[in-house]
Amino acid sequence: MSNKLFEHFNTSNQTSPHYERHLNFANPVMAERCEQITLLEPNERCDYATNALSCLQHVYIINYNKYFYCTCDANDLSRIICVLMLISFCCWQFWIIFVTTIKFFVPALQIISKFLKLNEYVAGVTILTLGNNAPVLINTFFGQSSTARHVYTDSMSLNLFESIFTSACIMWATPFAIDGTFFLRDVGFLLLYISYVDFIFKLSGGQIGILRAASMVSVYVIYIMVIVLDQYLQYRKNRMKERLNRESQIGGIEHQVLPPTSNQGRGDLDIANTYHAANRRLLKQFFEAFDVLDRSNFNSKWTVVKVWALIKVPPLIFLRLFNPQMNFHETSFKWSKLLLSIQTTLTPVALVLAYTWETEQNSFMWSGIVFVVCLPISVTVFAYTRTDSVPKWNRYVAVLTIVSCISVIYFVGKELVFGLESLGIILNRSHTVIGCTLYSWGNALSDFMANISLAKKGYPRMAFSACFGICTSICIPILYQAINSQTGIVKFTEGTVGETASIILIISLTTLILYGITTNFMLRRTGAIIGITLYVLFLTFSISSEFEFTHAFGTDHILDRSLYNDKYADS
């Protein structure tokens, strides 16, 4: 910290500490922040982490600062061990968000996209993008209220990872050709969005009102309108082709015989075998649904892999209990009639209990009301379902799955944000470099794995389009906070790395457009090398500016550390 504190004592009683008079007038004392804990003596840090209001504001469920400074601050070895444990715990939370998104959230969104009959490009930039960006959007809402998070830096870094690095990995994994119209539409709109958001931040100096926040959201609204219009025109075109084909056919309509559908890989589920009793193997099927142990890892010769297989079991059981499963033929989870009947009441009650507990309302009263309303639904579900077949109306349960998944991502993500903030304080590193590395990688992990998996399954265009669905993780939360503020204005800063992230992102998107045009939209591995190189360049700039080897775009180390409150260190 640039302005050091001096302690002087009254000569009469030697008991009244105060700040140096001229220093206090020249440099007003900075508001108390939890990062100042690193300036205290080691024997004072535990009490500060336990009682200081600035540190208690960084606590949701677990007080990481109290745990570290009261337990692990004795010597260097214990500090290293506790830091590694904290990093591991944050990775575990990232993994929970990843599993929730991949195993439950995305399948539910796919059910909805099939129900709405969306094509590959539209599904990629709407439904799949919504699923991928849900954790980011949710985490950004409580990142705004945090004094440590720089929403602009986090969002730009995340856009850079998803749009450039992930798309480059897709091109490397499965080179493909793409329709130039869709390519220019998706990449071009994202370039327009990033440029406009950067312009608004520069124009307003970080003080954004409702009108300007709404104008940023309007870019996304226009984008969605263009997609809907394009879908409608494509639908009209297909209908016209079908009509012309019918008129040109002489021998009548040719029917295409489809091969019989195989039920292989569905475990004990046999849809055709519906002549048994409706409740046959009811309890056995229920307990089999919670058989989530990864036996391939558990049977490994490595002890670490065995331990990891056991660590995964509790959260998987929890997720299986509260999140109704979709697409049983594409997952290792098995159908259970009894479990679905329980979930139709248990999941709404648990959601109401969690949200009312967080808002300090009458949790038990509201949960009781929801229980009374949902119990007849559970009874009806149990009466009209069978253990040997999945009901056709199960796709409508996808709505409940989406709500429960968003809630899991919300609560786990909120704890994760505070954990990463504490990690930055403990490591004495700026929050911006934590945001553009660990925070971005963790939030984008589920997107990265989902898109690569889709590409390898034969849907590279859908995966590629999902990388460029405009990320609303900055404009929607800003508009929400501006509307709820008393003045109608919300204050944000770019942080010391935000400008670097936005400039490299704009350069990368422009380069990608030029690459697509010059290769006639044949996306090959040469494009992947370009994208990966640009992302590595961004990391090099960010890390080197963190250690003050180089300057980030438009920054000065000393001035910006004080302006953005990124780091507290004596200078």
Tally the helices: 22
Strand tally, please?
Answer: 4
Mean pLDDT: 75
> Uncertain regions: pLDDT < 50 for 5+ in a row?
1-29, 142-149, 250-274, 556-571
How would you write the strand order of the largest sheet?
1-4
What's the shape?
globular
What portion of residues is helical? 55-70%
Q: Which band does the percent of strand residues land in?
A: under 5%
Order of helices and strands: HHHHHHHEHEHHHHHHHHHHHEHEHH
- Please summarize the sheet with the most strands: 2 strands, antiparallel
State the end-to-end CA separation. Answer: 6 Å
Whole-number radius of gyration?
27 Å
Helix/strand-derived category reads mainly alpha
Structural features, described:
This protein has 571 residues and is mainly alpha-helical. It is 67% helix and 2% strand. It is built from 22 helices and four strands. The strands form two sheets. It has a two-stranded antiparallel ribbon with strand order 1-4. Strands 2-3 form a two-stranded antiparallel sheet. The protein starts with 20 loop residues before the first helix and ends in a 7-residue tail after the last helix.
Detail the topology: elements first, then pairings.
Elements: H1 21-26, H2 42-51, H3 53-56, H4 64-72, H5 76-116, H6 120-144, H7 151-173, E1 176-177, H8 180-204, E2 207-209, H9 210-248, H10 282-288, H11 295-298, H12 303-311, H13 313-322, H14 337-358, H15 363-383, H16 398-427, H17 431-456, H18 460-466, H19 475-484, E3 489-491, H20 495-518, E4 522-523, H21 525-546, H22 557-564
Antiparallel strand pairs: 1-4, 2-3
